[in-house]
Amino acid sequence: MSDISHLIEFLPCQTPDEWIAEALNNPRTLLIDHAMNELRAAQSAMTLIARNPTKIDLLNKMSRLAREELRHFEQVLAILKKRKIAYQPFKPCRYAGLMAQHIRKAQIPALVDTLIVGAIIEARSCERFAALAPHLDEPLSKFYLSLLKSEARHYEDYLGLAKAQSIDGSVDEPFDERVNYFLAIERESILSEDRTFRFHSGVPAKKLHR
């Protein structure tokens, strides 16, 4: 198992036990949304490539990330097929959207914010894989543990690129303050009641939208 202690320290909170319990009771939604998240992650990386054609370091890291995320997407699809779960995309939860609402508009600040949000999402994904693994059947637990290394690297890549752009672009707001700003939004999303269960949703409400 990969050491993700640095990632756990980065996040503002750990996944609530209530979410883990709901995930174990709703494996279909968990796996389908996991697949969707892998696909979205690849699409987000490709969008960053298309919008930043002269940033070579970003292009290299996002290209590798996109390939890995698509491979993970294929692996989750295979798990769904083996478990006779139909892949049927559905509406995402509020999680990423809450952070995206606060991304600045100017070119360099927008890129910095987008990369910070990417880092937080990857960190949370990694933390949830690790939190779920001890409770899952052996094949799925093994698969989730196998994702920790790549997800942790994706978090590091996003955060490193964000910091570099913040320095190179002479962004006014201190980088650490901006990271903490989005971490506060993320914490609220994770710890508050959520009426939609998804891989990145908050504490399950008593009455969930299925």
Protein topology:
Layout: H1 5-10, H2 17-25, H3 27-51, H4 56-82, H5 95-100, H6 107-132, H7 138-146, H8 148-168, H9 175-191, E1 193-196, E2 203-209
Parallel strand pairs: 1-2
Work out the helix count: 9
Q: Please state the oligomeric state of the protein chains shown.
A: single chain
How many domain units? 1
CATH topology: Ferritin
In short:
The protein has helices at residues 5-10, 17-25, 27-51, 56-82, 95-100, 107-132, 138-146, 148-168, 175-191; strands at residues 193-196, 203-209.
Notes on the structure:
The relative contact order is 0.18. The chain has helices at 5-10, 17-25, 27-51, 56-82, 95-100, 107-132, 138-146, 148-168, 175-191; strands spanning 193-196, 203-209. It is 70% helix and 5% strand. The chain is globular, with a radius of gyration of 17 Å. The chain has one domain (17-203): Ferritin, core subunit, four-helix bundle (Ferritin), CATH 1.20.1260. By secondary structure, the chain is mainly alpha-helical. It starts with a helix and ends with a strand. The chain contains 9 helices and 2 strands. The model has no long low-confidence stretch (mean pLDDT 95).
